[in-house]
Amino acid sequence: MRVRVLLLALIYLFGLPLAASAQAVWVEVIGHAIATDAKDKPAARRRALADALISAGMAGGVSMKGHTVVDKGRVVRDLTMMRAAGRVLRYDNLGEAWAGNTIQIRLRALVAPLEGPACGPRRHLVLVALAPNIRTSPNAPAWAATLGAELYSDALERLGRKRSVTLDKVLTTAQQPISKTKNTSMSYASLTRGDVRLQGGDTQLATWFEIDTEYGAGKGRQLVMRVQMQLIEGTGQITERTLSNAVKLPGTGPISSALGARRPKLKAKLAEGFVEILEGMIDMATCTPVAAHVRRAGNTLSVPVGSRQGLSRGALAFTENPASDFEALEIVKLTRDRATLRPLDPALPLSAFDGRMVRFVEAGK
């Protein structure tokens, strides 16, 4: 029976937050790498640094998952997957030394659980706000018709003030987001609407508002607002949150209808929690590593993320590959919207990375 152990290198490297998690611990780790020749030494140093970061993540524990395939009573595949359970919040380089063609790097790293609340320097979110989908029942009072648009507009204004967010595009109702690679030269609808091309590293914000009246048990006539919010990453990952608020409406007689003093309070009650939930989604998104799918074009590997998302030339990319152990790649060229990658192991074929998801960690210069 053949047993393969796959080390899935999902180590998320963040800087130290103002108040580190109480669960975080300091560990000292050592990484090694061998250079094939003098020209390979810079890449060997990155391999050693990657090795040390993986060891630091493993110091936070591991999670195991087994997968066994049996055919006619015989085990034909036995796969054990081992995943690092810690993430590196911060590390200090305690020293590095060469002995012939072998380099050793020693790090002191602050490691916290993967699911912990700690977060350091945030990735930069390039946000494309899709036009909100607002449905207001004809039974709702007239002042409720503008509530969804007002909340949406106020939320975008607040998001635009965040340092970790670039509000790149705000689409109108007539506009639709389309892939950067889609050919629309013969599309009359796209030409007349002015559809917006998305970059691979963009994050879309989609919102749905539904405002209607209901009769609650013992509460009389109520105005109910339900909101659905989605963040759609370029990788296809979707984060979704919902909100539902209700307020009791005043009477419908001529005197009650003339009294509008309660409207600001009713609006505030319906909006309660909307901004907090949306900002919480953004904060969670910016606290995750930059991620993208690798694409191969000839002898080049690249990802559709770049300096706009906060990447630097010193970042390393880690990928999962079911056919082998973890792989690491370095950035050889960086633009605003694209990074060209090169495997740290020159023996690996470029085809092994095509279509793979990579997550970036900052590893210094």
From TrEMBL:
Domain of life per record: Bacteria
Signal peptide interval: 1-24
Keywords: Signal
Entry protein name: Flagellar assembly protein T N-terminal domain-containing protein
Record organism: Thalassovita aquimarina
